[in-house]
Amino acid sequence: MATRKTLAVGSAAGFSGDRTDAAAPVVRTLVARGGPAALIFETLAERTLALAQIARRADPDAGYEPLLDELLEPILAPCLKAGIRIVSNFGAANPAGAARRIHAIARKQGLRAPRVAVITGDDLSGAVHRKLLRDGIGASFDSLDVVSANAYLGAEPIAAAIAAGAEIVVAGRVADPSLVVGPAMAHFGWAANDWERLGRATMAGHLLECGAQVTGGYFADPGHKDVPRLHDVGFPIAEIDADGQCTITKAAGTGGCVTERTVKEQLLYEVHDPAAYLTPDVTADISEASVRAAGRDRVSLSGVRGHARPDRLKVNVCHEAGWLAEGEISYAGPGAERRARLAAEVLAKRLRPALEIRVDLIGVVSVFADDRGRLVKATPAGDARDVRLRVATAHRDRREAERLTREVTALYTCGPAGGGGVRTALRPRLDIVSCFVPRAAVHAGFELVGA
Q1: Cα separations (Å) of 446 from 121, 202, 280?
Q2: Is the model's pLDDT at 370 over the cut of 80?
Q3: pLDDT tens digits, residue range 253-308?
Q4: 394 and 322 in contact (C-beta within 8 Å)?
Q5: pLDDT band at 451 (very low <50, low <70, confident <90, very high)
Q6: What is the pLDDT of residue 48?
Q7: Residue 7: beta bridge partners?
Q8: Alpha-carbon distance 244 to 200, whole Å?
Q9: Quick count: other Cβ atoms within 10 Å of Cβ 335?
Q10: Residue 394 pLDDT > 50, yes or no?
Q11: In whole angstroms, what is the distance from residue 265 CA to residue 282 CA?
Q12: Sheet containing strand 277-278, strands side by side
């Protein structure tokens, strides 16, 4: 693009399952603001992608974000009218399927066919990539029943797609901040080795990638960190200038807040090394970053640096890992904790050694507990009167795992007094192993998809 005006990028989702009414206030704010703008939906996590692969196995037309219609229908028309680019990883395991669905939504709303681009190259699950993955994982790869293998792509194909005229860019596995870096690269014409600007835009993307987490969501702690109108928390907008510096604000007329504290919390979220935040686009460095208030619900980030990007790309390989069985039962009143502990003892004696079980005493010790039960054993038995026993196990054989659900149900009449409210669940279990592959072995690109 020829213009050098500030680019506004709004965030409309921070994960699959996020609020579907978040986008409309963001789009209204972008339209009222005027000028170049983009809207991102970040809807993909490691487990989300694996589940999407399973969904596509069952239905070749599925495998993209299940809430795609609910996310796009309220804002597709105003975005197309205002020229707001939409960029998302809601393609998950089937970006082409998502693109077809977007065209169907446009037809249903009587809109012209949008120019939709699909990002390609992240899926490494095919036979041609097996040696590459084995080199990365080692001999243990041979025993894996692989469900999916996806490389974290960067912003370059997103930027190229927008530069080629795409109004909507549908990706699968790309790094979350790249959803913001891509539109910024296309808008400002940054080179792929402009490390300083890419580093700054990457941290703008990092601030937006979790949606409302930077505007008061997952921040509120009454009495310590009060957030106004949390029920109506607004989603964030990053104003990015030609040097990659950004100011964070939020959708007009919404609840929540943008303060130095909310921005600092999100800035440090999932950052292992502040001097080397690794992404496919750049190694971002926030060791000398500065966060300053710039008005009501406006906070500026400066001082971010960028260094050369890694030579390798991260790949997540998801594989089948048997079955996970869970069961719960409640005990209340005098002696409730003693009865819950006795029920856990009954289950352990009935199921071991074939099954190792995890025990949580919800209301006594659970969140801080561990799979081996060390904390439960080390915690002296008390007199809690409202306890829910949760047990879980995993096994490759479904019938073995299922034994736990039957034994929990049997506690009704074979266990301690007064047990009630049994719930059980049995579902396939997926594990993830990660590795690195040479960047040159991954061929990222895009395709414009017709209506």
Answers
A1: 8, 21, 17
A2: yes
A3: 999 999 999 999 999 999 999 999 999 999 999 999 999 999 999 999 999 999 99
A4: yes
A5: low
A6: 86
A7: 240
A8: 5
A9: 16
A10: yes
A11: 22
A12: 277-278, 283-285, 305-307
* β strands within 246-395, DSSP E: 246-250, 277-278, 283-285, 290-293, 299-302, 305-307, 312-332, 358-362, 386-395
SS3 content of the chain, % helix, strand, coil (to 5): 35, 25, 40
Place of tokens 């990053």: 238
Residue pair 174/233 in contact by the 8 Å Cβ criterion: no
What does pTM read for this prediction? 0.93
**Whose CA is closest to 240, among 280, 181, 285?**
181
Helices (H) and strands (E) in the chain, counts: 13, 18
Q: What is the mean pLDDT of the chain?
A: 96
Q: Residue 428 belongs to what H/E stretch?
A: strand 420-438
**Of the candidates 16, 105, 7, 80, the residue with the CA atom closest to the CA atom of residue 52:** 16
* Residue 106 near residue 113 (C-beta atoms within 8 A): yes
Of 228, 220, 151, nearest in space to 445 by CA? 151
Tokens at 14, concatenated: 């921070």
Residue in 149, 87, 143, 138 with CA at minimum distance from that of residue 115: 87
Q: Tell me the chain's radius of gyration from C-alpha atoms.
A: 24
Q: Where do we find the tokens 């998502």?
A: 98
Helix (H) or strand (E) holding 86: strand 85-88
Which contiguous run of DSSP H or E holds residue 146?
strand 146-151
Could you give the angle at the alpha carbon of 194 between the alpha carbons of 191 and 199, nearest 5°? 125
Residue 138 CA to residue 132 CA, distance in Å, equals 10
Phi and psi at 378, nearest 5°, equal -80, -15
Tokens standing for 279?
């992404």
* pLDDT(238) > 70: yes
For the chain, give the number of residues: 451
Asked if pLDDT for residue 5 goes beyond 90, the answer is no
Tens-place pLDDT, residues 164-206: 999 999 999 999 999 999 999 999 999 999 999 999 999 999 9
For residues 306 and 283, the answer to whether their CB atoms sit within 8 Å is: yes
Residue 54 has pLDDT above 90, yes or no: no
- CB burial string 109-143: b at 16+ within 10 A, e below: eeeeebbbbbbbbbbbbeeebeebbeebbeeebee
pLDDT over threshold 70, residue 1: no
What pLDDT was estimated at residue 285?
Answer: 98
Cβ atoms 369, 376 nearer than 8 A: yes
pLDDT surpassing 90 at residue 399: yes
Q: What angle do CA 31, 33, 174 make, to 5 degrees?
A: 70
